[in-house]
Amino acid sequence: MGETNARKRVELTHEDVHAGEHGTRTRCLPEPWMCDVFYLDGSLRDIRVLDTTRVEWIAVLEHLRVVADETKVEHPYPRLDPVRPAVADLFRIWADEPEGQEDSFCFRARFGAVWFSAWPAFEEEIEFSVWPEDVLDGAGVAAVLRFLVEVATTSQRRALLTAEVVLYDPEMPTLISHDPATGLTSHI
Predict the structure, then answer these.
(1) In angstroms, rounded to a whole number, what is the distance separating the alpha carbons of residues 187 and 118?
(2) 130-140 mean pLDDT
(3) Helix (H, G, I), strand (E, B) or coil at 156
(4) pLDDT above 60: residue 118
(5) Which of 90, 135, 150, 183 is most exposed by smallest CB count within 10 Å?
């Protein structure tokens, strides 16, 4: 299982994060303290990847379509398939055409019982929201960790789980992060 480093962050290996997926080593999840990240305070938790491009957004959403238990897309663009539009077309209309300038689209992915939702606002930051009340137990935490790893690995950038208010209060810490370069997942 993970070790605590000098900065008091618990670091988990890729194997620790994925070990509970099939029920074989569920104790590898560092409960109950990791569940404490999802306390109900009225705000969402955000999974963020900073300094991204459209190419990374598209790669992440296309990858999630393959690995998630379920995905859904909602969009206001009449020229696109209403159920399963091409991700590149969503971004092209949203970012480059007048009809997309007024409304974004929503991409949702479900891992286990937990839904992750993105409403792209900026190409420079991938952001998914997760509702703390959906993360009820170790299985919910495992779903969040798996999602975090999938997003980080696909974008090849560090993925951060933060409280929703971090955008407005940058002094608040990152709660959990995954660095694809080292393969480590850290928790404050």
Answers:
(1) 23
(2) 86
(3) coil
(4) yes
(5) 183
Which one has a higher pLDDT value, 171 or 133? Answer: 133
d(CA 188, CA 177): 9
* Residue for token pair 């206001």: 76
DSSP conformational letter for 82: S
Does the structure show a pLDDT above 80 at 185? yes
DSSP string, 30-61: -TTTTGGGG--SS--EEEEEES--HHHHHHHH
Token duo for residue 175: 């709660």
Do 87 and 49 form a contact (C-beta atoms < 8 A)?
Answer: no
Q: What is the pTM of this model?
A: 0.80
pLDDT of residue 188: 65
Confidence check: pLDDT of 177 > 80: yes
Q: CA–CA separation, 46 vs 174, rounded Å?
A: 10
Q: Which spans in the chain are helix H?
A: 14-18, 54-67, 87-96, 138-155
Name, in order, each residue with C-beta under 8 angstroms of 106's C-beta and a sequence gap of 6 or more. Answer: 72, 73, 74, 75, 117, 118, 119
